[in-house]
Amino acid sequence: MTLPAVSDPLPLVESEGDRVIRVAGTRVTLETLVGAFKRGATPEEIAQDFSALSLADVYAVITYYLRHGSEVDEYMERRASEHGELRREIEGRPGYGEFRERLLARIRNAGPGAA
């Protein structure tokens, strides 16, 4: 018996003006999935934690990461830098400190288990 050579498409899509890569058909980002894998989660644990992901898609993305690690790491570093820039911009807005303190006070006053 011979099996046909089949290459399934990679289940990743670019969105938001090609800035964010997600697992096709989900809102799970590439950095979320790869981050979980880098922290030691197994493909089975990742699929279980994200019900929108099939185990086959998790394995496909991890395989892609293992084959193209430097490009994926570069993408993830660029995204982290963008997140940092956005955070600094938001924190620099007038009134941010007061707004943040009001939100934290609400959380403290709501008591345990409210968040």
Which secondary structure elements does this structure contain, and how are they paired or packed?
Layout: E1 12-15, E2 20-23, H1 30-38, H2 43-49, H3 55-67, H4 69-91, H5 96-110
Antiparallel strand pairs: 1-2
CATH level 1 name: Mainly Alpha
Radius of gyration: 19 Å
Walk across the major sheet and give the strand order. Answer: 1-2
Major sheet attributes: 2 strands, antiparallel
Name given to the CATH homologous superfamily: Winged helix-like DNA-binding domain superfamily/Winged helix DNA-binding domain
Order of helices and strands: EEHHHHH
User: How many discrete domains?
Assistant: 1
Describe the structure.
There is one protein chain. The chain is mainly alpha-helical and 115 residues long. The chain has one domain: Arc Repressor Mutant, subunit A (Orthogonal Bundle), CATH 1.10.10. 58% of the residues lie in helices and 7% in strands. A two-stranded antiparallel ribbon has the order 1-2. A hairpin with a 4-residue loop joins strand 1 and strand 2. It is elongated, with a radius of gyration of 19 Å. The model has no long low-confidence stretch (mean pLDDT 91).
